[in-house]
Specification:
about 325 residues; mainly alpha; Hypothetical protein af1432; Molybdopterin biosynthesis moea protein, domain 2; 3-stranded antiparallel sheet; two-stranded antiparallel sheet; elongated
């Protein structure tokens, strides 16, 4: 049965309209999706820009912080240098004050410091502690500033028992003075125990063995050697002095540190070594002695040139200056 033409047209028209409607809907969906993609793209661009601005800001802040840190580091470095310089100046002032009380002390102290620091490093002491030991050695006789001049100028055989005890207490006295200065407290501890004996019979605290700071034990060894060999010059043979010290091992001195002293001495002094001059106290000056060095006062005035043979008049002149402008660096005489 044939379908009427109008009805066919109507169906076709309906299909076209539905197809057009579907296409319009699809187009609308695509448009929405496009708009969403554009919006997301804009959002991402905006976020990227914001992140870039944050990065640039953070980078600038980091640079500023680095610059500020560098400036602070430079300030700290400058401050540390000033403190270090002040510390060195304080040591020099203390040395000068000791030298005024006991002219010629400084050269002895410098030798002890040089040898003690080298031995400390050989014995495994770290560099910082070795430096503390060297400083302690440079000013280890600071306690003598509190001892009357009349006692310091006496020969050992002329001292009374109480005067001997006072001299033996000089390191504890000096340590007590230095402890009042915060930056010298570690140095003070080393100085305090220089006269301790490894068998516990020493002073001031009767410490023994490793209870005694290693710096104190090292300085005790070196000070004994330099005093006998360079100051008192009881012998011109370094081996003889070492033999005397060896007899006191395990009693006064540390046996384990002794080999380092032996190596140091043998590396610096030959058996035939003979000093050509000697530093002596003013009270020991005698007519006929000849100066081996120019004699200056603290203020730089030359009292006498090297080679001068002392007379009673010249000795009196030196003594007069001592009360107003003390001798600097000690009096050195020729050994004949």
């Amino acid at each position: 049965m044939a379908v009427p033409l109008p009805k066919i047209k109507s169906k076709l028209q309906g299909r076209k309209e539905r197809s057009k409607s579907g296409m319009d809907h699809a187009s609308t969906v695509q448009q929405d999706q496009w708009e969403k993609l554009q919006a997301e793209n804009l959002r991402l661009k905006s976020e990227l820009k914001r992140q870039q601005e944050l990065y640039e800001k953070s980078h600038m802040e980091l640079i500023e912080l680095m610059v500020e840190s560098e400036q602070q580091a430079q300030k700290l470095k400058t401050m540390h240098q000033r403190i270090s310089q002040a510390f060195k100046h304080t040591i020099q002032i203390i040395q000068l004050m000791i030298d005024m009380r006991q002219p010629g002390y400084r050269m002895h102290a410098e030798r002890v410091a040089e040898h003690a620091q080298a031995i400390a490093l050989k014995a495994g002491v770290n560099k910082i502690e070795a430096q503390v030991i060297a400083v302690a050695a440079r000013i280890h006789e600071v306690g003598k500033m509190s001892i009357p001049e009349v006692i310091l100028s006496k020969p050992t055989e002329g001292l009374t028992e109480s005067e001997i005890n006072l001299l033996r207490s000089q390191h504890a006295i000096g340590a007590a003075l230095l402890t009042k200065i915060p930056s010298f407290r570690s140095v003070a501890q080393v100085i305090r125990h220089i006269r301790e004996n490894v068998d516990g019979s020493g002073r001031p605290d009767g410490l023994s063995g490793n209870e005694i700071p290693i710096g104190s034990r090292i300085i005790a060894l070196v000070d004994c050697f330099d005093t006998r060999f360079m100051l008192e010059q009881t012998t011109h043979n370094a081996e003889e002095v070492l033999q005397e010290i060896e007899k006191q091992l395990d009693l006064v001195f540390d046996r384990h540190l002794f080999p380092f002293l032996v190596d140091r001495v043998r590396g610096h002094y030959q058996n035939s070594y003979r000093p050509r001059e000697k530093s002596i106290a003013l009270a020991q000056l005698r007519e006929g002695m000849r100066l081996s060095r120019d004699l200056y006062t603290i203020s730089g005035v030359m009292l006498l040139p090297r080679g001068t043979e002392l007379t009673e008049t010249l000795i009196e002149k030196i003594m007069r200056y001592q009360s107003i402008d003390p001798v600097a660096g000690g009096v050195y005489i020729e050994l004949r």
